[in-house]
């Protein structure tokens, strides 16, 4: 009898032990993750236990209309932490940019992964889905992204829409949207979907969602836009370290003025933090180094739907779209014409106020006493 | 398009155009109304009549001593909320920013604490004036829908502005949308109700002062 176990049979606990992480490390990680996912602290031991005995889960990753920035940020996030090792633990069975095989061999791998893990694999998508003109604007192996998504999503346990493009259409959907780009949720409506928006998304958010899925076999609690509530429940503004300056009314007026050097709020320079839900201000980027506002630039609101078409990046939220002088002049003209017609109509209806014949004209009267002539 | 995008875009544009057209409609209509011809000779020359107009604009801010006991409370409360409103509108950083983005004109903003204080005084004054209007039998009798609607159109933007400033009750985006929409409602209502006094009050007082001086009456 052969007792040899393949890598697919290895539990996460065994893999971590093999890499030098003990049970205590896993428990610490579980505590951090329960905190990150806004779960009760008492869940941590159960999460650690579940993670320790969890087995590899198949992930099929499809890239559609995208710039590969989402994949890049996830790859570049690697640090020797359990969080990073979660990415090693998943069985990434298909990812065109990373896999060695190509062409028909890659397609065969895809079909094998689907057949082997039918109904159990996670489907990860980055990039928007072009649907205009039969979806011809983005094809893989002669199949449109739309057709590919519909086929493969049918047997997926859940779908992760990674990045703003996959979640809401993103930049490809920006006006005039020539390819008819849409998000995954606009195509697939009968499967559990988690949107992890961001341009790019924060890697820790993806690892948090994966940990939750691996530990509990279900997706974390989502908000009304299908985003993990734990990471997208508050705005960047709510957690921004410059928030006290906003509350004090201290705003940088330009990127190089005294206020900017003193780290004052960037609201007047167009920061979209107050209406952007994401965890940038708390999780930060590059191993917790900083996030855009900390680097001196306002938030672009990249994790919100249609962020590219919401006015200028340097236009303050307090501003709005003015009417322009020409429409204002037309409105004034309409007012003048309307007011004149109304006044003339009123004059014609009123009795003419003619003086009686017996009253002499003012000029004919002598000036009152004590007045200048 | 969500609520905030509507408020900042088409909503703001439509409200601005309706307000502009409405103000011109009212002003033009007033100028073109039939006036009784002046049969009496002027008591004073034009320069004195203009000075009389300017004087009446100023003197009407303070009621006659004989009326103080009856309308003093209303005058104080009204003055407080008008000054508060001016401080909020022309001293609040976001408002200056909006004016700057639309017209290119800008000026230094007031400290946030002063604007918050002005907002509190304005809200309290407006509530007190409403209570007085409801409780006073004569004022209640004289009040029309226009009075209550105009009150609401001023109260709502201040209230939503205070909520937005403190970011309570709802998230920033929702509060900002509600604040802008409440301002847009006020802009739309302004030319058609008593809020129009904002554009006519000084012209009306000035014309009355000129007329008084012409007839030799005190201003």
Structure commentary:
- The complex is a heterodimer of chains A (373) and B (219).
- Among the domains of chain A are: 56-232, NADH:ubiquinone oxidoreductase-like, 20kDa subunit (Rossmann fold, 3-Layer(aba) Sandwich); 236-309, Irregular (Cytochrome-c3 Hydrogenase, Chain A, domain 2).
- In chain A, 36% of the residues lie in helices and 9% in strands.
- Chain A has 15 helices and nine strands.
- Chain A has helices spanning 12-18, 23-36, 43-53, 69-75, 82-89, 103-116, 145-153, 164-168, 203-216, 229-232, 236-239, 243-248, 258-261, 280-283, 325-349, and strands at 58-63, 91-95, 122-126, 129-130, 139-140, 143-144, 158-162, 181-182, 193-196.
- In chain A, the strands form three sheets. In chain A, strands 2-1-3-7-9 form a five-stranded parallel beta sheet, sandwiched between helices.
- In chain A, a hairpin with a 2-residue loop joins strand 5 (139-140) and strand 6 (143-144).
- The longest helix of chain A is centred in the last third of the chain and has 25 residues, at 325-349.
- Chain A is globular, with a radius of gyration of 32 Å.
- Chain A starts with 11 loop residues before the first helix and ends in a 24-residue tail after the last helix.
- With 219 residues, chain B is mostly helical.
- Helix content of chain B is 77%, strand content 0%.
- Chain B has helices at 3-32, 46-59, 68-91, 93-103, 112-135, 137-142, 145-166, 172-189, 197-215.
- In chain B, helix 1 (3-32) runs parallel beside helix 8 (172-189), helix 2 (46-59) packs across helix 9 and helix 7 packs antiparallel against helix 8.
- The model of chain B has no long low-confidence stretch (mean pLDDT 90).
- Chains A and B meet through helix 15 of A and helix 1, helix 4, helix 5 and helix 8 of B.
Which spans of chain B have pLDDT < 50 for at least 5 consecutive residues?
Answer: none
Element string of chain B (H = helix, E = strand): HHHHHHHHH
From the 3D structure, determine the CATH topology of chain B: Fumarate Reductase Cytochrome B subunit
CATH class of chain B: Mainly Alpha
Number of strands of chain B: 0
Largest sheet of chain B: none
Number of E strands of chain A: 9
Class per helix and strand makeup of chain B: mainly alpha
Oligomer: heterodimer
Question: Strand order of the main beta sheet of chain A, please?
Answer: 2-1-3-7-9
Order of helices and strands of chain A: HHHEHHEHEEEEHEHEEHHHHHHH
State the helicity of chain B in percent bands: over 70%
């Amino acid at each position: 009898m052969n007792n040899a176990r393949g890598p697919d049979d290895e539990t996460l606990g065994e893999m971590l032990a093999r890499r030098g992480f003990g049970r205590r490390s896993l428990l610490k990680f579980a505590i951090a993750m329960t905190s990150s996912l806004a779960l009760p602290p008492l869940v941590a031991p159960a999460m650690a236990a579940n993670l320790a005995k969890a087995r590899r889960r198949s992930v099929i990753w499809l890239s559609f209309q995208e710039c590969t920035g989402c994949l890049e940020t996830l790859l570049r996030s690697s640090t020797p932490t359990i969080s990073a090792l979660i990415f090693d633990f998943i069985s990434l069975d298909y990812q065109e940019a990373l896999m060695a095989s190509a062409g028909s061999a890659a397609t065969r791998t895809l079909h094998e992964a689907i057949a082997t893990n039918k109904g159990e694999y996670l489907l990860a998508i980055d990039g928007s889905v072009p649907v205009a003109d039969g979806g011809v604007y983005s094809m893989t192996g002669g199949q449109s992204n739309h057709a590919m998504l519909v086929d493969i999503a049918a047997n997926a346990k859940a779908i992760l829409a990674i990045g703003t493009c996959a979640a809401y259409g993103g930049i490809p959907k920006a006006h005039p949207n020539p390819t008819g780009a849409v998000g995954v949720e606009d195509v697939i409506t009968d499967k559990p979907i988690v949107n992890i928006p961001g341009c790019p998304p924060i890697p820790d958010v993806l690892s948090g969602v994966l940990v939750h899925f691996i530990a509990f076999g279900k997706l974390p609690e989502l908000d009304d836009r299908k985003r993990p509530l734990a990471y997208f429940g508050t705005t960047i503004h709510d957690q921004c370290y410059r928030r006290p300056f906003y509350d004090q009314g201290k705003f940088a007026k330009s990127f190089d003025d005294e206020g900017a050097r003193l780290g004052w709020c960037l609201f007047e320079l167009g920061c979209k933090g107050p209406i952007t839900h994401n965890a940038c201000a708390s999780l930060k980027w590059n191993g917790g180094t900083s996030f855009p506002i900390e680097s001196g630039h306002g938030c672009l609101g990249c994790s919100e739907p249609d962020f590219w078409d919401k006015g200028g990046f340097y236009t303050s939220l307090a501003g709005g779209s003015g009417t322009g002088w020409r429409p204002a002049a037309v409105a004034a003209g309409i007012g003048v014409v309307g007011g004149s017609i109304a006044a003339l109509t009123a004059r014609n209806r009123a009795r003419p106020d003619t003086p009686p014949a017996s009253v002499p004209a003012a000029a004919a009267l002598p000036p009152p006493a004590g007045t200048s002539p | 398009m969500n609520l905030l995008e509507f408020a900042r875009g088409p909503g703001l544009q439509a409200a601005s155009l309706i307000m502009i057209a409405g103000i011109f409609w009212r002003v033009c209509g007033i100028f073109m109304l039939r006036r009784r011809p002046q049969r009496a000779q002027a008591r004073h020359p034009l320069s004195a009549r203009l000075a009389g107009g300017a004087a009446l604009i100023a003197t009407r801010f303070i009621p006659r001593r004989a009326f103080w006991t009856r309308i003093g409370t209303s005058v104080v409360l009204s003055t407080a909320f008008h000054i508060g409103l001016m401080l909020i509108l022309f001293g609040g950083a976001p408002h200056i920013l909006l004016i700057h983005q639309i017209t290119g004109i800008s000026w230094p903003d007031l400290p946030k604490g002063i604007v918050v204080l002005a907002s509190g005084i304005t809200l309290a004054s407006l509530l007190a004036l409403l209570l007085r209007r409801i409780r006073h039998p004569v004022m209640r009798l004289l009040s029309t829908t226009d009075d209550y609607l105009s009150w609401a159109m001023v109260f709502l933007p201040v209230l939503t502005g205070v909520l937005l400033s403190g970011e309570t009750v709802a998230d920033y985006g929702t509060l900002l949308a509600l604040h802008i929409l409440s301002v847009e409602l006020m802009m739309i209502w302004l030319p058609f109700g008593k809020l129009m006094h904002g554009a006519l009050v000084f012209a009306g007082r000035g014309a009355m002062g000129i007329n008084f001086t012409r007839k030799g009456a005190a201003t």
